[in-house]
Amino acid sequence: QKEVEQNSGPLSVPEGAIASLNCTYSDRGSQSFFWYRQYSGKSPELIMFIYSNGDKEDGRFTAQLNKASQYVSLLIRDSQPSDSATYLCAVNSGGSYIPTFGRGTSLIVHP
Amino acid sequence: ETGVTQSPTHLIKTRGQQVTLRCSSQSGHNTVSWYQQALGQGPQFIFQYYREEENGRGNFPPRFSGLQFPNYSSELNVNALELDDSALYLCASSLETSGRRDTQYFGPGTRLTVL
Predict the structure, then answer these.
(1) Per-residue confidence at A47, pLDDT binned at 50, 70, 90?
(2) A43 vs B102: CB contact, 8 Å cut-off?
(3) Measured at the alpha carbon of residue A28, what is the angle toward residues A22 and A31, in degrees to the nearest 5?
(4) Shortest CA distance to A105 belongs to which of A66, A76, A70, A78?
(5) From the list A49, A88, A98, which residue is nearest B48 (CB)?
């Protein structure tokens, strides 16, 4: 069974701080990794995807992938109250195009 | 806005009834996936259609069925509704990028309540 694990939180950080969200996965054959943001009552919104080991930066967001340790993380710099949402990690194993989702981590950015 | 649309937005049904949910994929996308998301959980994969054929199925009973049309829009049908079917149903369409079809963009979802 392919599993994607996330701490459900909530993770609470002050405005302006760096929020660090982590995700581990069980399938070593996984090849694609995604982070989605989901506001309460809304659908998931794709923030970033990463395929290769290392870091990928997009504005205030950085995705980090370590395949040897089977984890992927999302860093949010200069966190804003509008970043308060649930962040979903999704992992796609090689040979399929069907990501497996974690249950999400709730992030609260307080002023 | 992703360009993926779903209808209806909300739906209330009673146990035993049947429901059809609809999804229009983003222009140029040929793959549609359906997910069920219960409160406090991540999306659970139901099935995926690629060029009108079922391309994969999750751990859902046969009373969950689907269809994809030549214009790549899709339907999710659920028969004999149960209380546990109450959830947000998400449709996601995929853009093929560098040979990959796994970058999915979600529609707004349909909130189904079964009483």
Answers:
(1) very high
(2) no
(3) 75
(4) A76
(5) A98
